[in-house]
Amino acid sequence: MTVNDDAFTNWKCREEIAESMIPIIGKLHRERDVTVLLHSRSLVNKSVVSILKTHRFARQIAGEELSVTETMPFLQALTALDLGPSQIDIGMLAATYKTDDRGLSVAEFTAEAVAGATGANKIDRREPRDVVLYGFGRIGRLLARLLIEKAGSGNGLRLRAIVVRKGKGPDLVKRASLLRRDSIHGQFQGTITVDEANSKIIANGNEIKVIYSDDPTAVDYTAYGVKDAILIDNTGRWRDREGLSKHLRPGIDKVVLTAPGKGDVPNIVHGVNHDTIKPDERIISCASCTTNAIVPPLKAMADEYGVVRGHVETVHSFTNDQNLLDNYHGSDRRGRSAALNMVITETGAASAVAKALPDLKAKITGSSVRVPVPDVSIAILNLQLGRGAERQEVLDYLRNVSLMSPLKRQIDFISAPDAVSSDFIGSRHASIVDAGATKVDGDNAILYLWYDNEFGYSCQVVRVVQHVSGAEYPTYPAPVA
Would you say 411 and 43 are in contact if contact means Cβ atoms under 8 Å apart? Predict the structure, then answer.
């Protein structure tokens, strides 16, 4: 047998193990509301090759590849436990087991590590929480995909309705088609049918009522069977408390805005300040995609090194707010062709830092350039630190934050030397630290932070909605504070 034959045999073996993982992961998700993760990446509804690639990607984070032969025993151990709703990271289980010297078996170690999700400690399944999307544009459709994907056993968030202005022609068919196919994010993972008679889109068995209205005060959601719902406003039409309060209609309990809030509307970045949301707060904002990208790594750096001052320059993909070709626009430069130009524009992300990190006294300034790519942006965060540091020290720290800390769902880390923007389409993290581009000179650190300004941001929004709905389940092993 040649070396190549050995490699192929090894691949086939790992392929078989990954294939056997799929029904276990699916059953845990459907029957027990357990989401299996690998270094914060969900393995639910993933293909054999995707599971193997996720294991291999671990080398970018932890420095060495993780094999399915290492994680499969932990997955099997989970099936023997009386698990309640939770998220369980088998990558973390495998990594921490390696460093444990007590001589425990995999089953014993797993049972101890996830004890908070078993037996008398486990969380009871909650009633499904209704969600309404107000607006169905770029962010709205990605939120729909995520909510449908996360339906699980049906006891979490449940997308019940979409509110839009009626368009010309076969409106419902066109909107379903836009959900089904996306030029950037690809095909919808599942099946979509249209019930024109009842104005419904059925996606993977989820019946979604399409309500036509241009006035939030004119909708009675209880008439459509919606109750105690969280409404996500994707339009950005209203951004202050007075305007967003228009959504607080019969059937709606809370309103979440997918744009920076104005006035006293709390701006929330999940992972940083989501635990400050008051139980009786009915209106919150998820800030902007750029704010979500820079605040978690800014907090991480401030916690470890201190931050005296900083500047963020975002190189941002173009958006629907710009013109394809030169035409009139209310903004000075955004009227020029988005597909042909780099366009200097403003960003409110720097000023929004104060709302998400009120204890950070450092002055943060910001500016932005829109560039001719349709998705994925990069924030260049230039910081004066409170103390000097070495480059490798900073990289080791940020890699560890991405693996072990409470910010591991927000901050990702990549060391690939040839990474470019399209590599991060579909990333579920708020931002990704590019190790190769990071610069450190004494008390000056410059971080290059990639972020999918559409999908990564939508994931952050869903995390906030899960939190306020009570459907955000604990993760095991618990992140290291």
Answer: no
Catalytic one among 13, 286, 289, 459?
Answer: 289
Cα 457 to Cα 232: distance, rounded to the nearest angstrom = 13
| 234 token code pair | 């994707």
> Phi/psi at 267 (nearest 5 deg)?
-100, 115
Rounded CA-CA distance 106/92 in Å is 13
pLDDT value for 432:
97
Handedness of CA 58, 63, 69, 70 (dihedral sign): negative
Query: 159 with 205: CB under 8 angstroms?
Result: no
Q: What is the mean pLDDT of residues 175-185?
A: 97
372 cis-preceded (ω within 30 degrees of 0) = no
Q: Which two tokens stand for residue 19?
A: 């294939």
φ, ψ at 131 (rounded to 5°): -130, 140
Which residue bears the tokens 């088998």?
Answer: 90
Whether the pLDDT of residue 458 is over 60: the answer is: yes
Annotation marks residue 289 as catalytic: yes
Cis link prior to 477 (omega < 30° from 0)? yes
Task: List, as one string, the DSSP characters of 73-84.
Answer: HHHHHHHTS-B-
**First-last CA distance in the chain:** 49
Amino acid at 356: A
Give how far the C-alpha of residue 65 lies from the chain's centroid of Cα atoms, to the nearest Å: 24
Is the pTM above the cut of 0.85?
Answer: yes
DSSP code per residue over 262-297: -TT--B--TTTTGGG--TT--EEE---HHHHHHHHH
pLDDT digits (tens, 9 = 90+) for 255-308: 999 999 999 999 999 999 999 999 999 999 999 999 999 999 999 999 999 999
Q: Report d(CA 308, CA 310) in Å as an integer.
A: 7
Geometric angle at alpha carbon 92, from 88 and 95, rounded to 5°: 150
